[in-house]
Each structure stands twice: as structure tokens, then as C-alpha cells.
């Protein structure tokens, strides 16, 4: 699995989740959100003038994750404000993932290590 974001100022670094990893709130905060805030958020929005939007995955919507974002002073949409099924609000779901999956399947990649390698190469070509 891959976590990635699209912003008005660019694209985040992809973060890869191993197939057997369980993505609970703690994993999501430690392995995804903290690196995102340290590396990507500061690069894409040095003035912290963004609104963070995510989907309704349990690890995203949990009280623990929402509190973490609040404690980090990240302005974000609360779960009740999320717009499911909106191509404008979730371009990764409606554009990016399908496009990248098609490209990966054409290469018949079989391992997660190879998937990560080819995924990174596809992103470099954009």
C-alpha cells in the first residue's frame, strides 16, 4: 500500500506500507503523519497555510489521530466535514491511484519491493 498526497504546491513523498503491516492510529501517526509533517508539509506550505484533508479510513478518523493533528496545529477538515465521493476533493482516489495501478499492472510487478521501485520511477516521469 502507498500513502501519498497532492497539494496545490506539489506532491508529497510516497510512503510505503508493507503488506502485513496493520495501519492503526499509532502506525499512521508514527510512520505516515510525523514524516509527512517534518518533510512534506514544511516544504509544500512553509507558512502552514494549508488545510489537510484525508479520507475516512479508521486510522484517519480516529480521535487519537484528530487530536494529534490538533496538537501539531495542523488545520484540517474534521471527519464530519469530509466530502466522500468528490473527485475535486480527493484527486488521489479518482485520478492518481487508478493511473498508477494501470501502469504497475502493465509491468506485471509481483513483489512489494519491485512495486516500490517502479512506483517511484513512475512518479519521477510525471
UniProtKB/TrEMBL annotation:
InterPro entries: RNaseH_sf. This is Tc1-like transposase DDE domain-containing protein. It comes from Araneus ventricosus (Orbweaver spider). One of its GO terms (molecular function) is nucleic acid binding. PANTHER family: HTH PSQ-TYPE DOMAIN-CONTAINING PROTEIN (PTHR47326:SF1), TRANSPOSABLE ELEMENT TC3 TRANSPOSASE-LIKE PROTEIN (PTHR47326). The lineage of its organism: Eukaryota, Metazoa, Ecdysozoa, Arthropoda, Chelicerata.
Amino acid at each position: 500500500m502507498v500513502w501519498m498526497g497532492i497539494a496545490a504546491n506539489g506532491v508529497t513523498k510516497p510512503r510505503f506500507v508493507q503488506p502485513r503491516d496493520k495501519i492503526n492510529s499509532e502506525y499512521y501517526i508514527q510512520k505516515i503523519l510525523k514524516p509527512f509533517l517534518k518533510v512534506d508539509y514544511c516544504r509544500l506550505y512553509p507558512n502552514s497555510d494549508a488545510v489537510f484533508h484525508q479520507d475516512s479510513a479508521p486510522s484517519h478518523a480516529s480521535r487519537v489521530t484528530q487530536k494529534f493533528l490538533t496538537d501539531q496545529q495542523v488545520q484540517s477538515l474534521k471527519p464530519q466535514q469530509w466530502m466522500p465521493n468528490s473527485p475535486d476533493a480527493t484527486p488521489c482516489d479518482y485520478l492518481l491511484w487508478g493511473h498508477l495501478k494501470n501502469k504497475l499492472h502493465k509491468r506485471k510487478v509481483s513483489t512489494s519491493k519491485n512495486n516500490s521501485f517502479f512506483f517511484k520511477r513512475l512518479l519521477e516521469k510525471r
